[in-house]
Amino acid sequence: MNVCLMEMDERTRQSVALVLSHRGDDSIVLGDLESADVAVLDLDHAHALAAFRDAQALRPALRAIGLGAQPEGVDADILVLRKPVSAGRLLEAIQAQGGIESPVARVLAAGAAAALAARTESGRRRPDSTLPPPREQASFDPDSYLLGVLMNAAAEAEKRDAVAVVRFYGDRLVLADPQRGLIRTNLSPSQTRGFAMSAIEGAADAPATGRLSRPQVEFLARAEAESRYADATYAVPYEILMWQLGALTSRGRLAASCRADERVYLRRWPNLTRLAHSATEMRILAYWVRQAASPQEIAAALDVPERDVFTVYTAACAAGLAGKARRELDTVWEAPAVAAPRERGLLSSILGRLLQRKPACNEEPQAAAA
Q1: What's the CA gap between 271 and 262, in Å, rounded?
Q2: How far is residue 276's CA from residue 35's CA, in Å, rounded to a whole number?
Q3: What's CA 198's distance to the chain center, in Å?
């Protein structure tokens, strides 16, 4: 079933597009007016009803869903939803108008609620479960997502010793300053999750209808970026936000530029005190930080699904904590045994004398009394 969006501002249009792409299934596709079965229109726009009536005159079978803050007085053949509208309610309305039934929206919503409850109850620790990878996709192109845009912008900003300003979705901002290990943004946690999983319109991984408009990137001096955006954004460590974006974008997939059998290394432990993590992820990190190994080797050694290793690897790469091993020295290693020095130092000699010292005569009665 095809759905079109009519008489909406860009922000509302992208919000509805995100709902259709992440909460629906293959039976609901965002398309144009000519091929649409159901039209979703914003009743708060003055010409929304007139535009729909014109379209319906040419295509009498076209059904409509109207979104409005005060939707009184709308004709009965339009299914009206009062703003604000939940994602689940919108999908149910689209399914009802299109004459189809699909429980996928309710199942995914329930899963999201359960995951949120588990995280709320257990702090930063989360259950050993990951989102399944998108259907028919075993790898992904980071440049088709916000993740790749930010990684490329941050690399260029580091070369220029500047701040990369990434703007998208109207007024959404991410300011990356890798030299200082800092990101400033006005994204909420839920927006970060949604945008991380949204392919960029026109990119190789994006569906034909597109999902997220191409972000705009500019580079500013730190003083200028601070004066422009300090009051509109909040600060978060670079490593934390990029790790989250990497894990959310991966969803069990490996970047197309990486191979599952290629040895990779982890520079150091991530700051898990500010990252949600599972016991499986802890095992992967503990094994990986000791030695360079391929994702396949890690999965086999720990008997964990490869998708869990792929997610950790992508997150570590995004945070700048991982890389490909280039030398034979970067293989599995064990710390060499250190021989004891032949010559003893001053402190070692004094300690040896104290340990070998015999108690004096006047100390023996005290020892016996004790």
Answers
A1: 25
A2: 43
A3: 10
- Gap between the Cα atoms of 6 and 43, Å rounded: 10
Per-residue tokens: 337: 């045994």
**pLDDT of 177:** 94
* pLDDT, tens digit, 9 for 90 and up, residues 14-59: 777 777 766 555 667 888 888 888 999 888 887 888 888 888 888 8
Lowest mean pLDDT among 2-11, 26-35, 341-350: 341-350
pLDDT in tens, 130-154: 444 444 457 889 999 999 999 999 9
| Other Cβ atoms within 10 Å of 317 Cβ, number | 23
- 28 CB burial (10 A radius; 0-12, 13-18, 19+): buried
- Please tell me the distance from the alpha carbon of residue 334 to that of residue 250, in angstroms, as a whole number: 31
Which two three-digit tokens encode residue 280?
């499986």
Give residue 364's pLDDT: 52
> For tokens 């599995």, what's the residue?
332
Cβ neighbour number for residue 334 with a 10 Å cutoff:
7
Q: What does the block give as tokens for 51?
A: 């535009």
Distance from C-alpha of 114 to C-alpha of 294, rounded to nearest angstrom: 33
Neighbours of 123 (CB within 10 A): 9
pTM above 0.70, yes or no: no
Domains of the chain: 2-105 (3.40.50.2300), 139-324 (no CATH)
